[in-house]
Amino acid sequence: MARVFISPSKYLQGPGELDRLGEYTKVYGKKALVIISSGGLKRFGERVSASFAVAGVEFVYNNFNGECSQAEIDRLVAVLKDCGADVVVGLGGGKIFDTAKAVAAVPDVPVIVVPTIAATDAPCSALSVIYTDEGQFKEYQFFTQNPNLVLMDTDVIVKSPVRLTVSGMGDALATYFEARACTRSDAGTCAGGKVTGAAMALARLCYDTLINDGAKAKLALEAGACTESVEKVIEANTLLSGLGFESAGLAGAHAIHNGMTAMEETHAYYHGEKVAFGTLTQLVLENAEELYEVLDFCIEVGLPVTFAQLGVKDASYERVLEVAKLACVENDTLHNMPFEVTPEKVASAMLAADAYGRAALAEA
What separation in angstroms does the CA of 319 have from each of 10, 90, 314, 324, 326? Predict the structure, then answer.
């Protein structure tokens, strides 16, 4: 199997870039379907409309219904065909990006991803995470190409809730450790090949950036300031993690997150918050030397390290074992670990991670 590295055609990050969206969109099409939430339209609609008007690009807004489900994708594909748009713009959070990518893939039109938060590594990838209408993980959908453009307006990100950027750090935190596991097991990646050295280097840079700048970025964001640490963390959460996970692979952390979506009480928590706990669990499975460094980082920036912090009151072995069974299903990425993984091992690792988290919080 060949080594494969994939990426979006262009990534732009800087202050005020949202006001140039129309200019950028004009390169890809004459009429845009803009998938956006009602809240996003209220906050950014005037700027986006003005940008399209200046560029001479026609556009149609359509409200995102809140879940990246097959039903929502099918609905928006019909909207796309009916309105005659030739480019899709997804503006908002991770489920909007994933929906926009899936919608654009059906007629194979260009897609532009415009995050208003730095909460996930979804923007850069050629895949979408599909959920049921009730919010439980269903499957991954893979596409033939990555987004044509990912546009990050750092002024917008700085004004978003700090918790969302911290959640992005939780998602990015898994990148290096999952990449390392795939390298050790010689597993295939989401890019359709084996790990490249470039992807592994980006994954390592992602982790180092979080450890060096994560806490500083959180404090700056709490002060409403866009510092160099904030810029670096936005890049780590979005570009480095996106390229790293896709071309270097997923393993335990994200599979454990997928299993945890079966716990209804965790639906109130963000993707990256659950991935952070999945990362701790993967490190327990590996008996990795970085476990306590990662645990300390999570506590410092405010990522969950216990079941209780994810809203789970009943963390009995029997219930956690059911989550572990879902994480270990045949088609998920837990089997990219470089050793045999069973539901029993995963359940024990989750319970141990929770115990380590409780002990560390008591000492903090």
Answer: 44, 37, 8, 9, 11
Q: Give the start-to-end residue ranges of the domains of the chain.
A: 11-158, 161-363
Q: What is the largest CA-CA distance in the chain?
A: 59
Interatomic CA distance for residues 228 and 225, integer angstroms: 10
By annotation, the residues acting in catalysis are: 171, 254, 257, 271
Tell me if the pTM is above 0.90. yes
Task: Name residues whose C-beta falls within 8 Å of residue 314's C-beta, 6 or more positions apart in sequence.
Answer: none
pLDDT digits 0-9 by tens, 194-216 = 999 999 999 999 999 999 999 99
Could you tell me which CATH number the domain at 11-158 has? 3.40.50.1970
14 strand-pairing partners: 153
Q: How confident is the model at residue 217 (pLDDT cuts 50, 70, 90)?
A: very high
Task: Using pLDDT thresholds of 50, 70 and 90, give the confidence band for residue 237.
Answer: very high
Question: Token digits for 154?
Answer: 């750092």
Distance CA 348, CA 31 (A): 53
Strand order of the sheet with strand 149-153? 11-14, 149-153, 111-115, 87-92, 31-36, 58-63
**pLDDT of 261-274, one tens digit each?**
889 999 999 999 99
Q: Which CATH architecture is the domain 161-363 placed in? A: Up-down Bundle (1.20)
Residue 81 Cα to chain centre, angstroms? 28
Cβ-proximal residues to 351 (8 Å cutoff; 6+ apart), any chain:
315, 317, 320
- Within 109-153, strands assigned E span 111-115, 127-131, 137-142, 149-153
Averaged over 153-164, what is the pLDDT?
96
Rg of the chain in Å (alpha carbons):
20
Q: Do domains 11-158 and 161-363 have the same CATH topology?
A: no
